[in-house]
Amino acid sequence: MQIEGPFCLLIGLRGGGAVAAAGMGPGGACWRGGGAGARRWLSSRAPAPRVCVVGSGPAGFYTAQHLLKHHDLAQVDIYEKLPVPFGLVRFGVAPDHPEVKSYGAEDNRILGIPGENLPGVYSARAFVGWYNGLPENRDLNPDLSCETALILGHGNVALDIARILLSPLDLLRKTDITDCSLAALACSKVKRVWLAGRRGPLQVAFTIKELREMINLPGTQPVLNPADFTGLENAVKDAPRPRKRLTELMIKTALQKPGEVAAQAAAARQWGLKFQRSPQEVLPTADGRRARGVRMALTRLEGSGESAKAIPTGDVEELECGLVLSSIGYRSLPLDPAVPFDMQRGIIPNSMGRVEGAPGLYCSGWVKRGPTGVIITTMNDSFDTAQSVLEDLRGGMLDVSVSREGFGAVGSILRSRGVRPVSFSDWEKIDAAEVARGKAAGKPREKIVDPQEMLQLIGH
Ligand code: NAP
Q: How much distance in Å is there from the Cα of 327 to the middle of ligand 1?
């Protein structure tokens, strides 16, 4: 494992465990401290299995929780490269969705089209990281001076971003969105947001709760073209219930007359869904200095249902916009050259969480199955991985006859590299400071976005 930062965070928990690593991202920083599992520690002559978990997102915590609950002797150290825990629970989920707080992976898929790197084009991952206070994105400073934004992708992240761009500030002020992004959104000129997908309404990846929330967003008007939904009522008659209800809601919204919904009566802002449009090129302004639109290839669908493929028809359309957000999915990064990684699928090859060709190494979360699913999916998936560890312990596949030092050994390496670990109680001080700052502003917390400031706060 690479230890990168000048700081690191380690959470030490005791309960029961294995000599194994369950990871979800390239860790570096670490924490140490007692946790809920500490009270479960029982003395025994058998060496306590030590588990190293890399990454303190939901997958890491759920794996640790399951191990500690089902093995009285295990000790789990959770390592994290940032001085604050919880991964994308803290940095990924929209600030106005505190009840969801879920998903994670370290990188985004790229579009691979000309103009993708022009100013005015941002990845959803960076944009979400910016409004959620992810240190590496704190200086993103997105240009919100245009009136029209185009989000590429029809997933829940795309809807999250559209909602944040169009939400009344009063709603956002009560969330833990960072102060600087709130200030930027207050000056934003964006009043129209298009979400474009390469396939049709029957293939959208977002879910009904998120769509409904968007439809009911105060002060905004959905603009859906009824022609996009012709014949779909029949087509979804026998579809699985979630797809059927989702499609029916889109149809109902498309047929709605302007002003029919009270919250939209005096809508100054608009959003809409565009279908069967695949991004082909981000177009530059005349001086070549920034994005002015995206050329979209029109597509037809080959096949039906969820597996239908988008095939370019040869026709194109230019969509004018000053802000382009690419929201086409996240991807995990390789952990370490020694850990196998399938670059194509963006996952660690594994069977039930057991990393192929690396006995004693396990994986969980998006790095195990790819960037799909919500918090419950990750929870169940992490419990499965922990279960594999427990089975291997019981079956003697893991050698736990020798006592291992766990953080004792890692701590020496860290010290030799000048890395000062941030302990769990250090994190609690950062947490308290954030909550206190938030209270003054009527928010659940004001996140500290500069790691140096976090370290100063705990006297590092
Ligand atoms: P996603 O659900 O996988 O959606 C990705 C979207 O990008 C799809 O519409 C996909 O279209 C499109 N896309 C992919 N590659 C493309 C390409 N090369 N060109 C054009 N379009 C492309 O990803 P996500 O929105 O990042 O969400 C990730 C996971 O987190 C999902 O499971 C999501 O439900 C979850 N999440 C949940 C919540 C919540 O519970 N509130 C919030 C946010 C995220 P195709 O279908 O055609 O590939």
A: 7
| pLDDT at residue 76 is higher than 80 | yes
Give the number of the atom of ligand 1 that is nearest the alpha carbon of residue 373.
Answer: 32
Same domain, 29 and 52: yes
How far, in Å, from the CA of 213 to the mean position of ligand 1?
17
Residues 16 and 54 in one domain: yes
Band of pLDDT at residue 406, cut at 50, 70 and 90: confident
Tell me which of 41-50, 73-82, 384-393, 412-421 is least confident. Answer: 41-50
Q: What is the CA radius of gyration of the chain?
A: 24
Q: Which atom of ligand 1 is nearest to the CA of 109?
A: 15
**Number of domains into which the chain is organized:** 2
Pocket of ligand 1 (CB under 6 A): 97, 100, 103, 109, 111, 152-158, 160, 197-199, 203, 205, 210, 278, 327-330, 371-374
Please state the pTM of the whole predicted model: 0.87
Provide the CATH number for the domain around residue 415: 3.40.50.720
Distance between CA atoms of 31 and 24, rounded to whole angstroms?
16
Q: Does a structural domain hold residue 295? A: yes
Question: Is pLDDT at 358 greater than 70 in this prediction?
Answer: yes
Domain end (from 328, 346, 378): 328
Note down the domain range covering 350.
7-88+332-422
Q: For residue 310, give the ligand 1 atom closest to its CA.
A: 47
